[in-house]
């Protein structure tokens, strides 16, 4: 478990959350708003955590029940050193959270790896899902991987760069944003990943990108890829930062191809961290989407 949050972060992330037992240890979960209110379930990616959704939680908790998870290895959750850290494991943990909290009629809000994980849940249990908000992510097999991220998969080099130098999370504070991060945003995003041990998931997420059939997560991502058709009847809002070196506009175009009825907004001046670069724009559009599809 990481140390307690400093006051500078508590000022913008005041929620204490709860801890649920899942596969891999204690999973930290923010659960704000009335228990009988409509549910927003926010799922982060790599190398972020529920802190990334702080503006979403602040705006919608009250009229909505906002739940935001920290995947095992991330944020304030346990960081086991010998856990598999596979896609199916993360999917299974979110399923356990949903069942433990009794969440239904869920609006999924996803980013980065959260797209594959959230889609993994949604394709297993489409009856749980009411709507989807998709931001800079993918949920299908793809060979589109930036060279800078591919180098992290190189044995020894990737481990030293990510776990030793915090290269992945540090570089993301520059490359994942188009306008730059505030000091407190940078502090918050880096806070959980302050040691070799605490950077385990940051590395494992990259290693778990399945680029060939022999990879342990290739079948699970294929299941999700094939299952996306189960979500065609769900209202979908796509919010995209087109200035993204990783999930480029080509990924947005693929979402649009698969979900032609989706409402789409894309911005050339927004990077991968949509909720850091354009929180006001994103939240306004989410609010209108929720009202229109209530």
What would a concise description of this structure say?
With 294 residues, the chain is α/β, with parallel strands linked by helices. The protein has one domain: Rossmann fold, CATH 3.40.50.1820.
Task: Note down, in words, how this protein is organized.
By secondary structure, the chain is of the alpha/beta class. It has a single domain (about 5-290), classed as Alpha/Beta hydrolase fold, catalytic domain (Rossmann fold). About 40% of the residues lie in helices and about 15% in strands. It contains 13 helices and eight strands. The protein has helices at about 5-10, 55-60, 85-100, 115-125, 145-150, 155-165, 165-175, 185-190, 200-205, 220-225, 250-260, 275, 280-290; strands at about 20, 25-30, 40-45, 65-70, 105-110, 130-135, 235-240, 265. It has an eight-stranded mixed beta sheet with strand order 1-2-4-3-5-6-7-8, with helices on both faces. Helix 3 crosses helix 4 and helix 4 packs across helix 10. The longest helix has 15 residues, at about 85-100. The chain is globular, with a radius of gyration of 17 Å.
List the helices and strands and how they pair.
Layout: H1 7-10, E1 18-22, E2 25-32, E3 39-43, H2 54-60, E4 65-69, H3 87-101, E5 106-112, H4 113-124, E6 129-137, H5 147-150, H6 157-164, H7 167-175, H8 183-190, H9 200-207, H10 218-227, E7 236-241, H11 249-258, E8 263-267, H12 274-277, H13 279-292
Parallel strand pairs: 3-4, 3-5, 5-6, 6-7, 7-8
Antiparallel strand pairs: 1-2, 2-4
Helix pairs in contact: 3-4, 4-10
